[in-house]
Specification:
heterodimer, A: 115 residues, mainly beta, 7-stranded mixed beta sheet, 11 strands, 0% helix, 53% strand, B: 111 residues, 6-stranded mixed beta sheet, 5-stranded antiparallel beta sheet, globular
Chain lengths: 115, 111
């Protein structure tokens, strides 16, 4: 089956620094990748949708200058949390979609802790 | 914004019993999907039901969809301890395949 990886799985950073999270589709080309965040005991919230080679589409309330998304190739999307603050601490999950397929394949998630 | 809500928020049952989780959503959809998430792990896709379908089965899973009531249910029969997880429904609100997740149901199956 399709596999999506995320790196790192856990990261701890200091307030004010930037953190980059990678999302890779390992055995397929993903036309679209999605980024979600999940606060403890809460549901997933879609942050943005990224298509290879174009700018990401952000959901209402998500700051595009704070959460930089780059989808440089059909197998890699990155999310950079800039000037991280403790309230950015969360579980970030990416998913990837094969073109025309309704199913999304989810990465294992990245636990970000900002101290 | 969140598209769906699920109830109950938490469900605890004995192994062997059936577990039913419900999901309601707000707008028209093309399909509805159910996902499972083990603690601290990524999501696993369970089943997809299209808007023109009313019921779908997959192993011990049974999903129903009532588009007139904008609701869906997930039934897990003969539950096992390994079914302990959070279950989310997700809809593509506007047909663009952006998934919007419900609040999830935390299922605990007691051995």
């Amino acid at each position: 089956g399709a596999v999506v990886s995320q790196h790192p799985s856990r990261v701890i950073c200091k307030s004010g620094t930037s953190v980059k999270i990678e999302c890779r589709s390992l055995d397929f080309q993903a036309t679209t990748m999605f980024w979600y965040r999940q606060f403890p005991k809460q549901s997933l919230m879609l942050m943005a949708t990224s298509n290879e080679g174009s700018k990401a589409t952000y959901e209402q309330g998500v700051e595009k200058d704070k959460f930089l998304i780059n989808h440089a190739s059909l197998t890699l999307s990155t999310l950079t949390v800039t000037s991280a603050h403790p309230e950015d601490s969360s579980f970030y999950i990416c998913s990837a979609e094969i073109g025309g397929d309704y199913e999304q394949y989810f990465g294992p998630g990245t636990r970000l802790t900002v101290t | 914004s969140q598209q769906g809500e699920e109830d109950p928020q938490a469900l605890s049952i004995q192994e062997g019993e059936n577990a039913t989780m419900n999901c309601s959503y707000k707008t028209s959809i093309n399909n509805l999907q159910w996902y499972r998430q083990n603690s601290g792990r990524g999501l696993v896709h369970l089943i997809l039901i299209r808007s023109n379908e009313r019921e779908k089965h997959s192993g011990r899973l049974r999903v129903t969809l009532d588009t007139s009531k904008k609701s869906s249910s997930l039934l897990i029969t003969a539950s096992r301890a390994a079914d302990t997880a959070s279950y989310f429904c997700a809809t593509d609100k506007d047909g663009a395949n952006n998934l919007f997740f419900g609040t999830g149901t935390r299922l605990t199956v007691i051995p």
